[in-house]
Amino acid sequence: MTEAAAQRFDVLIAGGGIVGSACALACAQAGLSVALVERDLLGSGATAAGMGHIVVMDDSEAQFALTRRSQQLWQALSSALPAAAEYEAPGTLWVAADEEELAEAARKHSWLAERGVPSRLLSSRELGALEPNLRPELAGGLLVIEDAVVYPPVVALNLARQAQALGATLVVGRSVTHLAGGEAALDDGTRLRATRLVNALGADAPQCTPGIPVKKRKGHLAITDRYPGFVRHQLVELGYLKSAHSVSADSVAFNVQPRQTGQILIGSSRQYGNGKPAVDQSMLTAMLARATLYLPAASSLSVLRVWTGFRAATPDKLPLIGPFPADPTLWLATGHEGLGITTALATAELLAAEFTGSLPAIPPEPYLPARFAPALSVEKILPENTIPENMNQEKL
Ligand SMILES: Cc1cc2nc3c(=O)[nH]c(=O)nc-3n(C[C@H](O)[C@H](O)[C@H](O)COP(=O)(O)OP(=O)(O)OC[C@H]3O[C@@H](n4cnc5c(N)ncnc54)[C@H](O)[C@@H]3O)c2cc1C
């Protein structure tokens, strides 16, 4: 038995990606005793594969509330982050290819303005002046001024280390094999007990909580050699809204980010039903062709590395944050799809508020796993011998 095994924690978090690490810190800051268990490295998983774009989204009021609140928390955190976290706020430039997309830019501009988010509509000429490497025929764009970028694995590690400095126990290199009934079992036989368990296993969350509506959505990214100034903002096509948010079809979209090193991250792709991490040549080719369509000179850039990662997708495009209906000891913090870097801090804040009984900064209801009840019934989720005795076993 390890030293940690002898202890009982207020909160045990499975998964040390950016969501689990943020939850560990928020709980430790709230004065709770915390254990964080990570199978590989802290900040690996989707967190190491992601683009690090901290972006306010307007798909729904609930998505807006979570992304905006989290963006504000990122702003507050930014001065305490190490330089290696590469936090900066170049803004997102949503690029309109035609008049229809320009109308969408105008709608987005008004919608954000009504909610206090600063943005600026750009004519074709203004767009070209801000980003000279974009093809000149584009219709215009929208600059969302406070959007930021960050290097996610460094932040996840930093948040976990801050939690450790406040007394949290970090268990790294061990897999959680069971997470229910107030107990986590690890792959070396260690058993850890906690008043509250948190499943923050990202796209692997169903492995410990079978039956939850989380599916893997594969993505590719490419990174180039150093070309300082080639692009200056996070550039995203407004057509992204049509392609990336389809909940079924494979898609690529123009989504490019300048890094502090002068390198350029080129994304992005979305695929269901492909759980293999290998690079898919046809998706990669389509993704790079899309980038060249918007940035013709990108065809001469040297790509150094390409990788894939898995987003944790839910059917309604909102994460699962809150108590799991079929186990009174279990909370979920997963299903963040392509916005988990952005929304990690607000996710952690919501959970910590719930654990301490304090007032949440935003209404938690839209993200509660209970919205998928009765699909999440006790019998479907937990093997019979793990159902806590004191539990109402009706379908929830
Ligand atoms: C290509 C791509 C681009 C993206 N770009 C962006 C972006 O620009 N902005 C944005 O906001 N989001 C982006 N995302 C999404 C974002 O990366 C994820 O939503 C986020 O990283 C999810 O964090 P997480 O902590 O929930 O999951 P993960 O980072 O996957 O962490 C889960 C952790 O659990 C560990 N684990 C798994 N099973 C076990 C087990 N049994 N026991 C112990 N540990 C286990 C894993 O090793 C992993 O470290 C992108 C994703 C991809 C794939």
Could you characterize the architecture of this molecule?
There is one protein chain. With 396 residues, this protein is an alpha/beta fold. Helix content is 29%, strand content 27%. The chain has helices at 18-29, 45-49, 61-78, 99-114, 124-130, 152-165, 205-208, 240-243, 281-294, 340-356, 378-381; strands spanning 8-14, 34-38, 53-54, 92-96, 119-123, 140-144, 148-149, 169-172, 176-180, 183-186, 191-199, 215-226, 234-237, 251-258, 263-272, 303-313, 320-323, 330-334. Strands 1, 2, 8, 9, 10, 11, 17 and 18 form an eight-stranded mixed sheet that branches. The chain has an eight-stranded mixed sheet with strand order 5-6-4-13-14-15-12-16. Helix 1 (18-29) runs parallel beside helix 6, helix 1 (18-29) packs parallel to helix 10 and helix 3 packs across helix 10. The chain is globular and about 60 Å long. It starts with 7 loop residues before the first strand and ends in a 15-residue tail after the last helix. Flavin-adenine dinucleotide binds next to helix 1, strand 2, helix 2, strand 12 and strand 15.
Number of strands: 18
Q: What share of the residues does DSSP label as strand, in percent?
A: 25-35%
Cofactors, ions, other ligands: flavin-adenine dinucleotide
Estimate percent helicity: 25-40%
Number of helices: 11
The coarse silhouette is: globular
Whole-number mean pLDDT = 92
The secondary-structure element order is EHEHEHEHEHEEHEEEEHEEHEEHEEEHH
Oligomer classification: single chain
Question: Low-confidence parts, pLDDT < 50 over ≥5 residues?
Answer: 1-5, 381-396
Biggest sheet character: 8 strands, mixed
CA-to-CA gap between the ends? 36 Å
Global Rg = 21 Å
Structural class by helix and strand composition: alpha/beta
